[in-house]
Amino acid sequence: MSEQRSTSPLEVGTEVELEITGIAHGGVSVARHEGRVIFVADAIPGERVLARVTDAKKKSFARAAVTRVLDASADRRDHIWAEASVDRDPEERPGGAEFGHIALERQRVLKAEVLVDSMSRFGDIELAAEEDEDFADVLAELVEPADGDDEANGLGYRTRVRLHVDPETGTVGPYAARSRRVIPVESLPLAIEGINQIAPLFEQMGGLQTVDLVAPSADDPRMLLTEVGSKSASGANDLVRELVEDRGFIVRAGGFWQVHREAPAMLFGAVADAVSALAEEGLFDPAAGNLDLYGGVGLLAAAMAEAAGQGLKVTTVEVDEAATDNAAENLSEIVGALAVTAKVDRHLADLLKASAPVRDRLRRGTVVLDPPRSGAGGNVTAQLAELSPQNIVYVACDPVALARDTKSLLDSGYDMLELRAFDIFPHTHHFESVAVFTRGE
Ligand SMILES: C[S@@+](CC[C@H](N)C(=O)[O-])C[C@H]1O[C@@H](n2cnc3c(N)ncnc32)[C@H](O)[C@@H]1O
After folding, report:
1. Which residue has a Cα nearest atom 18 of ligand 1?
2. pLDDT tens-digit profile of 45-73?
3. What is the CA(89)–ligand 1 centre distance, in A?
4. Which of 279, 293, 286, 275 is nearest to 313 (CA)?
5. Which residues cross the membrane (predicted)?
6. Which of the two ends of the chain, N or C, has the fewest CB atoms closer than 10 A to its terminal CB?
7. Which fold has domain 15-76?
8. pLDDT at 60
9. Which residues are part of a known binding site for S-adenosyl-L-methionine?
10. With contact defined as beta carbons under 8 Å apart, do 248 and 241 qualify?
11. What is the position in ligand 1's atom list of the atom closest to the CA of 257?
């Protein structure tokens, strides 16, 4: 494509020179062009770049992708995935490693900035440095790395990868960034070795829609194939074994399990730490009506038990019946554990109608919740506020959703005791947060 450095009006394909001023949620940086905000892919705050406009439909903002770096940040690195380099046409770059051109430590600072900004704008929480502490140090330490990631430069961690099949050519690969075009690639640098060994990157797989690659920690890696027109993948219901420290979990091969090899242990540890800290403050009651909402196969209920002991009473609530069955088995040694298949809002609505003694037990309880990306939302946070459990441990994969739900909880009289964040998706903009709330006096 020929280079057109014209400015207004912005049109798709136009190249513009931009000063990158900050980071936005979603893995893009921020610049301004003649008063209009531009979200720029593949840039780093502080850089001056040439970027091609990729979307100009909205009046208030446009989107662009870097085509040439004019003044590079000291944190710029060769992209960890050769195919995603800025030397390539933006449309030919695979998605899924949108921070792969940034030094790992700076990625974590950018994630911390997004968390701090989200909490300030949507959560009414200003995260500040202590006296004698530099805020830059707070940002550098807020998002905790997973074991082994610094040594491996954040590569080789994914135990689950979804590839797509081009309906015309049968080529297998990831989607391009911001589109549903399949991009052929030579390797999957974020995936663990076992997945790279079985990935059919050089095969034609016409007739298929997706190829899911799964490498459980205590089972053989495998491919789950979904045919065009089918809703389920072959082998998705096979049970595989996962190990977290020395505790075993069964999960369906196609079911939800944290993607980073260390993530289950990290989140297990974070929830167990939170429960232990609450117990030390006299705020945790193992015999109360404790809940693990959006509980999957019971990972976080098991973490509560790790801290509280086998006498824990806890109910996991999960919409997927098969995952609930797995949770029942995974938690079978915890006599007081119950696994329920239900939508969280329906289950909470039922609990709100329960008898006074049951409501009292819930009021003394601790709720762990780990909702999907959209967060718990206003309805569920309002139900929680009405149930009024003593503590809420909120595990979140989206900082903005967490911040919005935080605001609802603070408005309902909860105090935030702790906020941690975990870099369990290196080279992407994603990260996980764990926020601990307790009911105010
Ligand atoms: C982020 S996963 C967490 C799973 C589990 N806590 C873990 O760490 O493995 C979210 C889970 O919520 C379930 N889910 C999604 N929407 C739900 C709803 N409205 N009610 C109950 N469960 C839901 C999904 O099936 C998924 O298992």
Report:
1. 343
2. 999 999 999 999 888 899 999 999 999 99
3. 37
4. 286
5. none
6. C
7. OB fold (Dihydrolipoamide Acetyltransferase, E2P) (2.40.50)
8. 86
9. 258, 294, 318, 370
10. yes
11. 9
Query: What separation in Å is there between the alpha carbon of 295 and the centre of ligand 1?
Result: 6
pLDDT value, residue 6: 45
Please state the atom number of ligand 1 nearest to the C-alpha of residue 368. 6
> pLDDT of 83-112, one tens digit each?
999 999 999 999 999 999 999 999 999 999
Q: How far apart are CA 398 and CA 29, in angstroms?
A: 17
In this structure, what is the dihedral angle of CA atoms 244, 250, 254, 257, given to the nearest 10 degrees?
Answer: -30
Q: How far apart are CA 380 and CA 404, in angstroms?
A: 12
Q: Are strands 29-33 and 48-55 parallel, antiparallel or unpaired?
A: unpaired
Per-residue pLDDT for 441 more than 90?
no
Q: Catalytic site residues?
A: 397
Distance, CA of 147 to CA of 151 (rounded, Å): 9
The stretch 332-348 carries a mean pLDDT of 97
pLDDT of the residue at 350: 98
Strand segments, DSSP code E, in 110-229 are 143-145, 160-165, 172-173, 208-214, 222-227
Indicate which residue's Cα is closest to atom 14 of ligand 1.
294
Residues near ligand 1 (Cβ within 6 A): 256, 258, 294-296, 299-300, 317-320, 323, 343-344, 370, 372
Q: What is the pLDDT of residues 106-127, one digit of tens each?
A: 999 999 999 999 999 999 999 9
First and final C-alpha spacing in the chain: 64
pLDDT band at 8 (very low <50, low <70, confident <90, very high): low
**Reported pTM:** 0.96
Span from the CA of 372 to the centroid of ligand 1 (angstroms): 6
Superfamily per CATH, domain 99-154+260-441:
Vaccinia Virus protein VP39 (3.40.50.150)
Taking the centre of ligand 1 as the mean of its atom positions, its distance from the CA of residue 189, in whole angstroms, is: 28
State mean pLDDT over 250-255.
98
Decide if 15-76 and 99-154+260-441 have a common fold. Answer: no
Candidate from 258, 294, 314 with most ligand 1 atoms within 8 A of CB, to mutate: 294
Q: Which residues pair with 438 in a beta bridge?
A: 391, 415
In this predicted structure, the answer to whether residue 2 has a pLDDT above a threshold of 60 is no
